[in-house]
Amino acid sequence: MNANMIRWLGEATVASAMPFPEIVGKLISEGVEYYHVDYVLSQFCFYGTAGGVVVVPLLLGAPRPIEPLLDEEALRSAIVDSQQNGQKFKDFSRRAVESGVAGYFAFLSGKRVIYFGRKGDQHVEWFPGAKPAEA
Questions:
Q1: Does residue 133 fall inside a structural domain?
Q2: What is the DSSP letter of 7?
Q3: What is the tens place of the pLDDT at every residue in 74-133?
């Protein structure tokens, strides 16, 4: 993993400097297997397939208090807005925190995101078209 490129991609995410699918493609090509967005610590942690880790500040402005309960309906609405309407990352993050999201793990090779709240509640969101058929 090229730490400078990963840092730049983290900053580009916050600035909405390029389409998010393009950022994901570049992260994968740089050897990122998954990443963690931590709204409590205001940071990204990018984890490489070979074991490396790159930490990038999540510069979203003044931290907001994270709601105590995870509101999955509000979170799902924010996710859909990003996927279908090109919502900017900062707006998504504000809405996620207002929905009770303390952080999330985005598993690039696993094609899913696991959002979690302050009490351990979780929401799994599959990448579009990636959810396996129910058995």
A1: no
A2: H
A3: 999 999 998 888 889 999 999 999 999 999 999 999 999 999 999 999 999 998 777 777
CATH assignment at residue 76 = 3.30.1810.10
User: Contacts for 106-111 with beta carbons within 8 Å, 24 or more apart?
Assistant: 106/34, 106/35, 106/36, 106/37, 107/33, 107/34, 108/24, 108/27, 108/28, 108/32, 108/33, 108/34, 108/35, 109/28, 109/33, 109/34, 110/34
Amino acid, res. 54: V
pTM of the model: 0.90
Query: Which amino acid does the sequence have at 48?
Result: G
- Residue 92 CB neighbour total at 10 angstroms: 19
On the CB side of 20, CA atoms within 13 Å amount to 17
Cβ proximity of 50 and 30 under 8 Å: no
Tell me which residue has tokens 């995101």: 113
